[in-house]
Amino acid sequence: MSTPIRISVVGAGSAQFSLGLVKDICLTSSLAGSLINFMDINPERLDMIHKLGVRYAQELGTDLRFESTTSLRDCLQNADFVINTASASPHGKQADSREVAAKYGYYHGGGIGVGGFANLDLMLGVARTMEDICPDAWLIQSGNPVYEGCTLMTRETSIKVCGLCHGHYGVYNIARVLGLAEEDITWQAPGLNHNIWLTHFYHKGEEAYPLLEEWIEKEGEHYWQTHIAERTHDIQMSRGTIHQYRMFGLMPIGDTPRRGGWWYHTDIETKMHWFGQPWGGPDTHLARPLFVKNLEKRIEEMTRLANDPKASLVASLGGEKTSEQQVPIIDGLVNNNEGQFQVNVPNYGALAGVPDDVVVEVPAIVNKKGIQPIRVEPLPEKILYTQVLPEWLDMERDLLAYHTGDRSLLLWSALQAGQTNSYDQATAAFEDLMEMAGNEASDAHYRWEMGQEMLLEKVKK
Q1: Against a cut of 0.90, is the pTM above it?
Q2: Domain span at residue 223?
Q3: Is 255 one of the annotated active-site residues of the chain?
Q4: Tens of pLDDT, residues 225-275
Q5: DSSP per-residue string spanning 160-209
Q6: Whether residue 424 lies in the annotated active site
Q7: In contact, 37 and 9? CB cutoff 8 Å
Q8: Catalytic residue from among 40, 234, 255, 283
Q9: How many domains is the chain partitioned into structurally?
C-alpha cells in the first residue's frame, strides 16, 4: 500500500545530494505514485537531474512522476514536503573570500567573514513563500547553515522545519577504527549542528568509551603517524579530535572537531599536526580545491550518464538506498513507518541549558504523529559553557545583525576572530570582503549606524 505525495526539491542541481535523493525515492515503494518537482536556477543542471530521475525510475519500474522548473513558486504548488538544498554561496565565491582574507594574514579564511546574509535570506525566502503557497508542508532543510537558518525560519514563520546534516555519521567512523560492527553500537550525540558530543556510546549493551581509551593508549600514536586520509573530511579519529576529547571530556562528532579552537587552525603545519596527512583536514588550501574538484567530476559523470541513453543508471549508481535521512523521515511521517533519526528542530526542553526557540540537534522519533525530539541528558557544564552557549551567542549576534542591518556587529565578529592580531588588520579585511564581487546585497544590507563611520577612520587614513 503506497501513499502518493508531492515532493518539491529546491536546489536540485546539487552534485552532493540529488542523485541519492532520486535513488531513495525510487527505492521506497510506500511512496510509489508520488510526484517529484525539481527546481534549480541552473537550467542545465535541472535538465540533467530530471533526465536521471525519469530514467532511474523507469529502469526500476517505479511508479513515480517528475517535473522540473526554474520557478520557486511553481515548484512549491501543492507540495507536501519541500527539501531545500540550495546555497547562495557557491564554492567559487568562498574561494575568492579566502583569497581576500589571505592578503591580510588570515589562513584559509581565518574565521573572518561578512555574515551569512545571502543564505539566510534565501532560506527565509523559501519558508515565507511556503507560507503563501503550501503552508501545511514540511520543510526539510538540507543545506548549510542548518543551525542559524533553521532557528531563523522557525522563529520567523509558521512552517514546520526539520534540519538534517551528515555529521552524526562520524560515530560509525569511530566504530570502524575500533573494529566494531555498526549494528552493534548504540549512541547519542546531542548538541547544536556541527557542535555535537558523544554522550552515550555502547557496544552490545556495554560501555564502549573504555574501548576508545584502550585504542588511544595502544594504537593512537601509531595511527596518527601512519594514517593517510582517503577523504578530505576524514578527521574523526585524528590527533586533534582526540585532543578535544581530552580537553572537553566527550568525543566531538562529525564536523565538530573542525570548530575546536583557533589554535588548531593557524597555518597548514599546525593543521597537519592536528588533522593528519595528506591535507590537514578539510579546511585547508590543499583539501578544499580537491573537494570542489571531486564535486565537479561528479557533475560531469552525472551529465554524461544523463546524456547517454544507453547507459544503465542502476548499474552505474547502484540499486541500494543511501544512508540519507530525508526520504525515511518523509516515509515515517506519511506512512507511519516509524524510525529514530538525528534531527535539527526547536529545542523546547530537549537539551537542557539551551533556550527553547533555538534549534538543537538531537535524536527524535518520527511517525505519523510528527517529529518528536527525545529529551536527552544534559551536556557536561564544561561543554555547555565553553562550546554550546558561546556558539548560541554567536548565532544570536548573527541573527541580530541580519535583522537590524547593523554593520558594526559584523565588524565586532571580525575583531574577535582567532587569527586577528590588530584592529587595522580586521577592519581592512572586513571592508575588502564587503566590497568583493558577489557581496553587493550584503554590502547594501549591512550599514553603519549614525556616527559609526568613525570606526574605520584610522584604516582609511
Answers
A1: yes
A2: 167-284
A3: yes
A4: 999 999 999 999 999 999 999 999 999 999 999 999 999 999 999 999 999
A5: EEEE--SGGGHHHHHHHHHT--GGGEEEE--EETTEEEE-EEEETTEE-H
A6: no
A7: yes
A8: 255
A9: 2
